[in-house]
Write a structure and sequence with these properties.
The protein contains eight helices and eleven strands. The strands form four sheets. The chain has a three-stranded antiparallel beta sheet. A three-stranded antiparallel beta sheet has the order 8-2-9, with no helix packed on it. A hairpin with a 5-residue loop joins strand 10 and strand 11. By secondary structure, the chain is α+β, with helices and mostly antiparallel strands.
Length: 258
Amino acid sequence: MSTQNPMPLFYRKPQILRFEEHKGLGLVAKNDFSFSSNATAIPLSVTEFMPAVRHYPIVFIDAGGSPAPVAIVGLKQGHNLMLEADGSWAPHAYVPAYIRRYPFILVQAPNEDTRYLAYDSESGRVKPLAEVPDAAPIFNDDGTASKVVEPMLQLCEAYHQHRAQDTAFLKALTDTDILVARHVDMEFPDKTRYRLDGFSVIDPERYRNLPARTLKQWTEKGWTDAAALHLASAQNWGLLMERNRQVSANGHDAPSRH
């Protein structure tokens, strides 16, 4: 479980949106997350720990030598348990911002500080208006983002800012050496066994033994809250096992991405 792929998860062919080139495009309205059908982990920002702690184990994976928080959504490789048969997300479960923003994403041009809104041209969610007349236009006539795209732009920007703010906390986890590698061994109703590994968690004993000065600094920065939510999320492995049992009993697999 890692993020070594140079292309962001789920994005196959991102293209920067330009009015002159893409003014004839529209966004197809769908409550369909089937593009995430093969995922077992979804990236999170630390600000999402609070809503995510009710539904998912929150762990850390290696992202180019630095820890990155993710929500575990599947127990077996290639199977997202949170998808319903029609591609919708499990009712009442938190949907991570990373996938709510899809097919849009912010990209930063080389040697520039400016970020641009891009979209995955192979997502199937963005189509020519000539082909899908009821799709919502991407642009207004004056070249500004439409009322449908503007919230997505804001979501992309907020996610980018939150992940940037996470850097100091994630560095502190590494510097204090409180992350430890873990794995989960599971036995399913059909008696098959499976091990999920490749992730790290905060070791409770190492965390408790941090110097008082360090804990004071963490408290002031809100990092102790993040650590507590992460540790509390371990209870959700049982929820995932129950979700797996329900999905297996219903006899449906995750829908194919499109």
